[in-house]
Amino acid sequence: MITLEQVSKVFTSNGQAVRAVDNVSFEVGEGELHVLIGPSGSGKTTTMRMINQLEEPSEGRITINGRDIQSFDVVELRRNIGYVIQQGGLFPHFTVADNVSVVPRLLGWPKHKRRERAYELLELVGLEPDVFANRYPRQLSGGQQQRVGVARALAADPPIILMDEPFGAVDPITRKQLQRELSRIQAEVHKTIVFVTHDISEAFILGDRIVLMNEGRVVQNGTPADLLRRPAGDFVTTFIGEDRAIRALQYTTLSEVAVPSADAVDSVPEHGLVLPGTLSVPEAGRYLGGQGHNGATDRPDGFWISDESGRPSGYLTYQQFATLLGETLTATGGVERNPTGEDADAVPV
What pTM was estimated for this model as a whole? Predict the structure, then answer.
């Protein structure tokens, strides 16, 4: 849907050329949500603003569905790309319904169609139309204003939406609620979204892919699992922070870390922990031709992992499982304090 090819943006400051964006290339597939993230001054917002020509590229090429954006009429281009900014950017003298209907009005939609669309979208973003349609922005909370901003971006049913730190000005609880709402809405409407944020947690919650930038360049472009499990360098690891191992659990299956069953066939434990996707010891023994109890007294310390067909594919010790959870088992079977200093639940042994 969107392709950036070796795009750069150069500003002049005090007679000096400053490369805010430096040779950036990536693609955004149709229906995907790509997060641009990085420290302040990394070029993420400038990169996004070049997609709808709020900034002109100094070098390189940007295309939408294979068509160079320079060939579009700039007004037509922007009317067909939804745009959401911090604090909603609502017109204070317009009602909520009129704010949502701004672009349809510019496109010449009849009044009744604009009203129907506004009510439909308010319902979609979780605002009861009969309650909120005739209110003014000053009568809304910050979170409600952001919901209206999202509804306005969707009003003309654009294929692309740009979101510039849309939840950055609200409190943490409201921010979590808005993130969940955006995930729900995206699951329904499947828009192509470029989302700028400085919040790494938000990036992992929302992004199909994450483009991590620093000093105007792309440091790594990949899925959340790629950044967590295959970081491109120390900068990626440092930027994600100390929670990287814990976050990686969300993108790791037990079968990926279990010892292959052929290596553990002679040490199936007498007793195993039965979890969803795992096998009890009798089942494992049956599949392995009755060899399941050999060496049982030497290794009653873990559980079997099954594959999709229900057959044993590997073995995971409690110690390995605890390590995946970011904890360390003590000799007595307790759990040491985790890196955050908080007590953790004990892994059963």
Answer: 0.74
